Amino acid sequence: MAVSTVEVRPHSIKLTGQGTTSIAPSQASDTTTTSLSKHLLKPQAEISSAYSLSGVLLTQGQQHATSVQIATKALQGVGKELTQVKKQLTQALSHGSTPQMTDKLSRSKQVIEATLNQARFDGKRVVDNELHLKLDTSDVRRFSIPGLNVHRMSERAEQVRLDFPSGGSVMLQFDGQSDGQRTVKQLDRSVIPMGMRASLANDGSIVFEVHESAYAAMQQQVRVTGEGHRFPAGQANTFSIQAEPDGMAELKFDLGSRDGIKQSIAKVNQHLKQAQSSLSEARQFQSQLDTQMTRIQSQSKLPSEQQVNETLSGFSQLSQDFTTTFQALNAQANVRRHTVVALLK
C-alpha cells in the first residue's frame, strides 16, 4: 500500500510572545508595493514643475499684458477727444467761440477724465493725469505747502508744526545750520507712519506724496504753526495746499481772447504729444513682453491639458493598484492563529 507524504514547508510566519503574529508579505505583494511607490513619486515630481519660476513669470507677464492693453485703449480714447478739442479751439480762433462750443469742450474734458479714471487693472490706474503709463505703481497725489521751502530764511532756526485734516501732526525742525536734504529726510521718516512721504524739489520746496483717497480727504488744507519767522507763531493758520502739476485735471480753455485760445491750443498739443509718446511706449513694451513670454513658454515644462488628463488617469490606475495590494496584505494579516499552528505541525 502506497503511502503519500505531504511536506508542509513553513511560510514566513513567526509566532512570538503572547500570540503576536508578524507576517512578512509575499514576493508578489512586495513587487506590487515597490511599483506603486515608484509610480506615486513620479507624477508628483512632474506636477511640481507646474509651480516653477516659469509659471510665475508667465502669470506676471499676462497681468502686464492686460494692463498695457487697458492703457492703450484709454490713451487712444483720450487722443481722440484731444483731437476734437483742438478742432473746436481752432474754429474758435478763426470764427470766435459760441456757447455750444463751450459745452462741447466741457463734455470732452469730462469724457477724458472719466476715461482715465476707469482705466484700471486690479483697482489701480494704468495711466495718470499726465498721460504717463503707470504699471506696478499705486495711485498717489503730490502737493506742497506755500512757504515751506528749505531755502527760505535758511539761516534762522525755527520749529514748524504741521497738522493734517486726518488728525495726524508732525514737527519740522529748522536748525539754521543743516542742509535741506537732511531736514527733509528727517521729515520723511516722521510722516511715513501717517501713510505719506516727503521729498525735496529742485527749487527747495518740500513735496508731499499721499494716496489719492487720503489726498481727497485733506480737502486742500493744512494747518501750520511756526515761531514767527517762516510762519506766524501762536494759533495755527490754515494754508491751502498746492497740487503738483496734475495734467488733464488742470486743463482749462480760455476762450476770452485770441492769446488765451492760442495758449489752450498749445497746452492741448502738449497733451497730444504725450499721449502719442505713451502709446509708442506701450506698443514697444507689448512687443518686448510678447517676445519674453514666447521664450519662457518654449523653455518651460508646464503640462498641457492632455498631460494633466493623462496624469489624472494614472492616479486612478494607481488607486486601483493600491486597493489590490492592501486587500492582499489584509488577507494575510487575518489568518487565524489555529490555522497557522496546524500548518506548522
TrEMBL record:
Keywords: Cell projection, Cilium, Flagellum
Protein name: Flagellin
